[in-house]
Specification:
The protein is α/β, with parallel strands linked by helices. It is 32% helix and 14% strand.
Length: 348
């Protein structure tokens, strides 16, 4: 997408928690063209490194008025306005572009109806590929090497030799071959896993994938795979893509890894498969309802590895997002296509 704008100095407003060193990098990039505004006292308090939501901060009437004035000045936002996201087009009439800190913003944009605005949104796609691939490898190894069994034996102080299957020679189906899925495929191939893959656009198999599966044929091949890895964006096409019939078709003893979105899979049906032991185990970073309610029975299953939607979060995350943002600032200034532009018709 080509961007055209007047040559005047543009205002960048930092709208979510960001460490000072990264703010300074943005300020230093092109101070003749961009003015960077950062008021951390008006933003949520970060609870951990790269926390883009933060602990809610109660703003006074004067502080809210200050924030409204800053929004009215902004041409570019680093992340979304968390106070009133749905009304960003009204509250920020000069706003042209938002650099998101997440790759999966489609559901948020649809919910806030921002996808119907004229604002350009760019995502953090690619930033989280390596951390999510590491989590996928962790999840597969956790169950193929039977770590839950080792935990039980450790608690019992019981020493007894045993045998596991291991990953080499297993077959995995990766649903979604974007930057995350491709990284997972390379890792799996490194472990000697036969990788099948599916993606919306089809095309040639990427590195590590030995067979491409048409998305409509997923149910047909599930009896033939030992692991199902979900790495696709959430769209209307992928919502409940893995429903009860697909889970029933999955080979008994298979493992599930979900680094996509909770709504891609029928969580209740997956729970029943895990509870019965028909599904060997699941490594889950995402759930239908987040935070996962304390009363959710998933917490109590010994064959479920739960991550609080944090598999993508590493301490280098903000540095990598700022790399994309600075690259896009250069593209924006030159009128060139931006990286990672969100496309409403695709949902990502």
């Amino acid at each position: 997408m080509n961007i055209k704008h007047a040559p005047d100095k543009l205002t960048i407003l930092i709208a979510s928690p960001l460490e000072d060193q990264h703010v300074e990098r943005i300020k230093a990039y092109d101070p003749a063209r961009y003015e960077v505004i950062h008021h951390p006292d008006l933003l949520a308090r970060p609870r951990y490194v790269a926390d883009h939501n933060g602990a809610p901060r109660t703003l006074s009437e004067d502080e809210r008025a200050r924030w409204s004035e800053l929004m009215a000045q902004a041409h570019i936002l680093f992340d979304f306005d968390r106070l009133d996201p749905s009304n960003m087009p009204v509250n920020a009439p000069n706003l042209r572009w938002v650099q998101a800190t997440s790759a999966g913003i489609g559901e948020f944009l649809r919910r806030t109806e921002l996808d119907q605005s004229n604002i350009i949104f760019t995502t953090a796609s690619g930033v989280h590929a390596r951390p999510l691939a590491e989590f996928a490898s962790l999840g597969l190894l956790y169950f193929f090497r039977d770590v839950p069994y080792l935990d039980v034996r450790k608690r019992e102080h019981h020493w007894e030799r045993y045998t596991v299957r291991g990953l080499e020679g297993a077959r995995a189906l990766i649903v979604g071959l974007g930057s995350v899925g491709r990284e997972i495929a390379r890792d799996c191939a490194h472990f000697g896993v036969e990788v099948w893959g599916t993606r919306r656009t089809g095309g040639a198999a990427p590195e590590g994938v030995s067979r491409m599966i048409d998305q409509k044929d997923i149910r047909q091949v599930l009896p033939d795979v030992d692991a199902l890895v979900l790495a696709c964006p959430l769209t209307e096409e992928t919502r409940l893509l893995i429903d009860k019939p697909e889970l029933d078709a999955l080979r008994p003893g298979a493992v599930i890894v979900n680094v996509a979105r909770g709504q891609v899979i029928n969580e209740a049906a997956m729970y029943e498969g895990l509870r019965s032991g028909r599904i060997k185990g699941a490594a889950l970073d995402v759930f239908e309802t987040e935070p996962l309610p304390k009363e959710n029975p998933m917490w109590d299953l010994p064959n479920v590895l739960i991550s609080p939607h944090s598999a993508s979060t590493v301490d280098a995350e903000n540095s990598r997002i700022v790399d994309i943002f600075i690259d896009n600032l250069g593209r924006f200034a030159r009128g060139e296509p931006l990286r990672n532009v969100y496309e409403p018709e695709r949902g990502y």
